[in-house]
Amino acid sequence: MTPIILDGRSLAQELRQEAELELVELQHRLGRPAGMAVIQVGNDPASSRYVRTISKLCHTLGASFRLEQLAADAAQDDLLRVIATLNSADEVDGIMIQMPLPPHLDTTSAILALDYRKDVDGVHPINAGLLAQGRPGIVPNTPAGGIELLRRNGIELRGKRAAVVGRSPVVGRPMAQLLTTADATVTICHSRTTNLGDVLRTCEIVCVAAGRPRLITAEMISPGTVVVDFGTNVDAEGQLIGDVDFAGVAERARAITPVPGGTGPVTNSMLIKNIITAARTRLVQ
Fold this sequence. Notes:
single chain, alpha/beta, Rossmann fold, purine biosynthesis, hydrolase
C-alpha cells in the first residue's frame, strides 16, 4: 500500500498565503497591523531560535512583532507586570509566553494572568473550557494544525473511530476534543493504557503525541489507518524522528504525516491564524 503523505510544508505555505490576505484586510479595519508579543525569560538557544522564527514569519506576512525579554533570574512579579502591560496594550492582539519558564517561576499563575482573548497558544483555562464545550475560542496551534491537515486532505472524521496517544494539555487532550467536535468517536490512550496495540487496531485514525520515539509500530495499527504523528524526537545520529516508526507504519497506513515535514510546519502557520482570530474577536467586543 502506498500511503498519502500528509505534507505539512505545502499546507503551511497555503495557510500563510491565506493569512497574508487576511492580515491586509485586518490592517484596513484596525488602522494598524495586527500585533503579537512574545515574552521570553532567559536566553535558551532553542527558545531564541523559535522566537526568531516567529518574528520573521510575522514580519513576512504583515503582522507586527514585539519581544519582551526578561533575565533568567526575573522575579514572578516582573513577569506578571509584563503580562499586565501587554494585556492592556491596544496594539497587541496576541500574547505568547515562551515555554518552558525557568523552574523558579510559577507557570500556572503566569497563564492565568493572561487576557484569554489574547492567548494565541490557547493555554488559558477559559480557552480550554471553550474547546471542551465545543464553543468558539482559541485552540492550541499544534492540534489545530493536525485537524487542518486531515481536513484539507479530505480525510473524513465524522463517524470514524479515532485514538489519541498522549494526554498533554497542549496537544493530546485538545486533539481529542477537536476530533470529538468533528463527530469522531475518540479514545484517549496514555502511558497507563494496557495492550495499546489492541486499542489502536480498532481505530481508523490514530494521532500520536506521546513524546516517545517510534513508539507506534506497524503491527499496532490496522491496514488503511490514517496516522498523524506529532512527535519531535532526536535520535542518536541527531536526526529528527517522530513517535511513529514511519518506514514500517507507512506500509500499512492509508495516509501518514512525515517527521519532519508533517505537523511541525503547520503549527507556526496556525499561530498566525490565532493572531488573526484574536484581532477579529477584539474588533467585535
